[in-house]
Design goal:
This protein has five helices and no strands. By secondary structure, the chain is mostly helical. It has one domain: Signal recognition particle, SRP68 subunit, RNA-binding domain (Hyaluronidase domain-like), CATH 1.10.3450.
């Protein structure tokens, strides 16, 4: 992440963070550390969802596919933790992350 801090704008840094969280979550899922994986997956999903809302329809399809993949892994983590739904947790994560992504989008003036 240090390289991206120097080379990328703040909006792209969120996308990088979402990708890294997804990779870390994969590791935790392999280790059956369900809560750690779920936390990382939810962060990644919220970031990708917000980024998707700023993209045109063609680019948004790519992000929607990634979100769909994350949803599959989130369900697996919930099953590992025997949680029936992750929507409340997602809302809490979104409330924390959304404002900073909107600011990054406005700062970089993405199309």
């Amino acid at each position: 992440m240090k390289v991206s801090e120097e080379c990328l704008d703040s909006f792209a840094k969120f996308e990088t963070a979402a990708y890294i969280d997804g990779m870390k979550a994969s590791y935790h899922m392999e280790k059956e550390n369900w809560q750690e994986a779920l936390d990382l997956l939810m962060n990644s999903k919220v970031i990708y969802s917000k980024i998707c809302s700023f993209k045109d329809s063609l680019e948004a399809v790519i992000y929607q596919e990634r979100i769909s993949q994350l949803d599959t892994f989130i369900r697996l983590c919930c099953a590992g933790l025997t949680i029936k739904t992750s929507s409340t947790f997602e809302e809490k994560v979104a409330a924390r992350i959304d404002p900073t992504i909107v600011k990054a989008h406005n700062d970089t003036k993405q199309e």
